[in-house]
């Protein structure tokens, strides 16, 4: 008959990151029901270097051949375990979908749980609530998908992440969470296809005319590559602001130009995609 210690060893093999509640349920189903004993078992493995405590109630399993001091857990898996409703979003979702131009050391998670930002092993985690307007529409999780993620140790982890369509709109809506305009433009340019009805539905749901204009402006710049239908641009144009708005309030002092089609004032750097004209050596030096 397996001892509680051996039972947990089996659990660790399939749980690279886990919550106390998950471990507690596993042990309870196998006869170890006392929570004090359960906590003591986790503490034992932590002292032996088999576990790392990320924060209260959240643990990382160290591979048998690995080092507790050197182990760097998969940030997507850590983020997915921060709360039952955790959703990878903004630039983190771009990374997940394989269309982020640059790697970020910040992981952004949407959740209704009241969690504080924290750092672990050189990575920062930033929990945020879904946009208030989505709660008003009673659709805070519109455009959220559950996808199987194959983490480095080979374990398959179900993960909630904003769709490519929602992510595109989200980073244009809140560019500071997308890494800034150049990063956003370069990243979104990697997208190969979009579900147009989903993109339009989410843009309408946000109800922000400036955001609709941003989405329309980006798609009009990449209409040929993305094969954006004219009707989609027409629908977005009907949602644009009635007066001129700025792409970003922070860009008012920059060299700008007006996109009359979208009633949007855009920095020339973005409108002309000036980074595309940089010599290859300059682009490499910027990325280092």
Compute the number of structural domains: 2
For the secondary structure, the number of strands is 12
Taking the alpha carbons of the first and last residues, their distance comes to: 55 Å
**Can you tell me the overall shape?**
elongated
Secondary structural class = alpha+beta
Strand sequence of the main sheet, in spatial order? 4-5-7-6
Strand content: 15-25%
Helix content: 40-55%
Unreliable spans: 280-288
Task: Provide mean pLDDT, rounded.
Answer: 91
Instruction: Give the helices and strands as they follow along the chain.
Output: HEHHEEHEHEEEHEEHHHHHHEEEHH
Largest sheet: 4 strands, mixed
Radius of gyration equals 22 Å
Number of helices: 14
Please describe the structure with a list of short key phrases separated by commas or semicolons.
about 290 residues; alpha+beta; 2 domains; four-stranded mixed β-sheet; three-stranded antiparallel β-sheet; 14 helices; about 40% helix; disordered C terminus
Word description of this protein:
Helix content is 41%, strand content 18%. The protein is elongated and about 70 Å long. By secondary structure, it is α+β, with helices and mostly antiparallel strands. The relative contact order is 0.08. Residues 280-288 have low confidence and may be disordered. It has helices at residues 4-14, 20-29, 35-47, 75-80, 90-96, 132-136, 164-173, 181-188, 196-206, 209-221, 223-226, 230-237, 268-271, 280-287; strands at 17-19, 51-55, 58-61, 87-88, 106-110, 118-120, 123-128, 144-150, 156-162, 245-246, 256-259, 264-267. It folds into 2 domains: 4-61; 75-275, no CATH class. It has 14 helices and 12 strands. A hairpin with a 4-residue loop joins β11 (256-259) and β12. The strands form 4 sheets. Strands 4-5-7-6 form a 4-stranded mixed beta sheet.
């Amino acid at each position: 008959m397996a001892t509680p210690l051996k039972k947990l060893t089996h659990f660790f093999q399939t749980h690279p990151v886990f919550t106390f509640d998950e471990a507690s349920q596993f042990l309870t189903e196998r006869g170890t029901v006392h929570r004090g004993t359960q906590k003591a078992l986790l503490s034992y493995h932590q002292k032996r270097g088999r576990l790392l405590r990320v924060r209260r109630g959240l643990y990382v399993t160290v591979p048998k051949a690995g080092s507790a001091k050197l182990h760097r857990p998969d940030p997507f898996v850590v983020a997915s375990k921060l709360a039952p409703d955790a959703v990878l979003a903004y630039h983190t979702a771009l990374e997940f979908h394989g269309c982020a131009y640059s790697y970020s050391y910040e992981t952004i998670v949407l959740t209704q749980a009241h969690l504080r930002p924290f750092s672990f092993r050189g990575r920062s985690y930033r929990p945020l609530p879904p946009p208030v307007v989505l709660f008003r529409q009673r659709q805070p999780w519109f455009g959220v998908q559950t996808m199987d993620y194959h983490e480095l140790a080979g374990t398959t982890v179900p993960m909630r992440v904003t769709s490519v369509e929602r992510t595109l709109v989200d980073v244009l809506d809140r560019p500071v969470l997308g890494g800034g305009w150049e990063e956003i433009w370069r990243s979104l340019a990697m997208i190969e296809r979009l579900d147009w009805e989903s993109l339009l539905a989410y843009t309408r749901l946000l109800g922000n005319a400036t955001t609709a204009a941003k989405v329309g402006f980006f798609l009009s710049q990449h209409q040929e590559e993305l094969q954006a239908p004219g009707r989609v641009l027409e629908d977005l144009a009907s949602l644009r602001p009635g007066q001129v708005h700025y792409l970003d309030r922070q860009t008012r002092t920059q060299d700008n130009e007006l996109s009359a089609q979208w009633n949007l004032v855009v920095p020339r750097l973005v409108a002309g995609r000036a980074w595309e004209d940089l010599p290859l050596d300059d682009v490499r030096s910027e990325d280092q």
